[in-house]
Amino acid sequence: MVIGNHLSCASGYEIMGQKELKLGGNTFAFFTRNPRGGAVREHDPEDAARLCKFMQAHNFGKLVAHAPYTLNVCSDKEKVRNFSREAMAEDLRRMEYLSGNYYNFHPGSHVGQGAEVAIPMIADAINYAVKPEYTTIVLLETMAGKGSEIGGTFAELRAILDLVEQQENVGVCFDTCHVWDGGYDIVNNLDGVLKEFDDIIGIDRLKAIHFNDSMNVCGSHKDRHQKIGQGEIGMDALKAVVKHPLLKDKPFILETPNDDAGYIKEIAMIRSW
Ligand code: FE
Ligand code: FE
Ligand code: ZN
Hints:
Blueprint (H helix, E strand, L loop, with lengths): L2 E3 L7 H11 L21 H13 L6 E3 L11 H18 L6 E4 L9 H15 L7 E5 L12 H9 L7 E6 H6 L8 H11 L5 E6 L1 E2 L10 E2 L8 H9 L8 E3 L5 H13 L1
Parallel strand pairs: 1-9, 2-3, 3-4, 4-5, 5-6, 6-9
Antiparallel strand pairs: 7-8
């Protein structure tokens, strides 16, 4: 299987690959820039090329890069919207040096404007940032529906996708904690949730999994991640996600509250399933 975690420090491309290999992983996530600010880290094309070689040599699956949390392409402030879409465009230009991977982002928060105003803004940002020749696929993350977050329902993600011009360049990242917190009962009805995903979005759009347990109950809209098997989703239901025929070949990214030793144990445990 393809599994890894979200690496905390993005000190360099090849270093991240080496670090993930030590943790037992064969994919990883990383922030394309400071997660809480906008500052962009050093970008070294030669380092990117070394990571590509390293990933080939060690049979890595696709990477799932993560846009910073501060990016809000559907903000009510024009300045924030413009900064966010420029950051996305720059991130995607850089992602092409890693050719053929995923770039995941939070659709955004409408901050009182309403989903009907925000959804076209999100699609506009994607249309602005994605060039037809790009090999990177932009992933909309399923969200917990906290506050005014867009993407807490499959219908909202569908509405965004409908407005995207480059259809081959967009997909969805399925976050188990977020989907559960959003009210989709993957414990008692995983098949039903995936059926609903397929009916509304199309299962071929599901490209990657953020694999997390949740501190809260289904429908809580809280978004607090927990270690695998120690939260309200629990071991059995998460095992069923890993083993599901529609999901098992996707890259699984852990975003659980762990240190390196914890990730080594978690990755080994999931591989043993
Ligand atoms: Fe995320
Ligand atoms: Fe996530
Ligand atoms: Zn989360």
